Amino acid sequence: MPRWNRLALLAFLPVILLVGLSSELSKSLVGQEWARKMFKEFEHDFGTVVRGSAPEHRFVIENVFKEDMQIESVNSSCGCTSVSLEKRQLKTWEKTELVARFNTVGFSGQRQATVTVRFSAPYTGEVQLQVRGNIRTDLQIAPGDINFGTVNPASSPRQTVEVRKFGNANWRIVDVRSTFPHIGVSLSETQRDQNRVNYLLSVAIKPTAPAGQLQGELVVVATDGGQEIKLPIQFSGKVVATLQVSPPVLDLANVKAGETVTKKVILKAEQPFRVKDVTCENAAFTVQADGESRTTHFVEVSYKGSAEAGKQQAQLHFLTDLADQPTAVLPAIVNVVKGDQ
Fold first, then answer.
1. What pTM, to 2 d.p., does this model score?
2. What is the domain-level CATH number for residue 160?
3. How many domains in the chain?
């Protein structure tokens, strides 16, 4: 290579390297901004929590882009917080939850952790989330969380939690709140002296609880005469009905005026039962049940389109001889259209 060419290359080499570094930095910044757009929140304060409790927070990650998204890893900077991910690959508008759990058994006092979420596609980038809280050792909750398991609300399933406070005889629980309206709590004080105060919380699922996954939080509100603190207790479970109806909603879609359509509804229970009666405020619905006793019933529901077009809603009430849950309610939706449509 001629000497002047070598000199020219040496002169332009810093420029070439600078352009290359700027390009890589730009890609990195784009990746960071791309990743942050999938989060609604970037920090969570657990507040005051107690030894033995199991507080957790769920950060929602939503893929708001057309490209598939890949989460490479999630890590916590402190053992006081453990993290887990429901799934790592998300298509457009799919969501996942990053669960951050505070370790109240192995740690105490003010604690803070940085949770790093790294992405590998369609860009590389990372997002940092902050979690913090104050773990008090003079307070204990046992068990730390409530798991009802799979339950039938008709039997009023119940769990007991003990709350202990050490070294303050003036400490009192003044309220217990729930994020789920179908939870009932009764409170009883079992000990109070200079060294210790004890409470028992009896937590029950109300018969009104709908079927499905149960997840929420109890908040115990306490005071020592001057300062109010809130203590979270997580609860979970699955509620199943004694009498199960499928489909959950009877959707008859478009029915022509004067036309009659018939659909089958399935009623199931663990023990044999009879369908004694079926009622509906809309006379256009008719139901046939054989009255025999079995664990599964296939019931035919018919609807005759009214002369008036439009959307109609009704409720079918199935009355059975089951002791725990004698009645099941099935919502029905129908859209009546003109005969020439």
1. 0.60
2. 2.60.40.10
3. 3
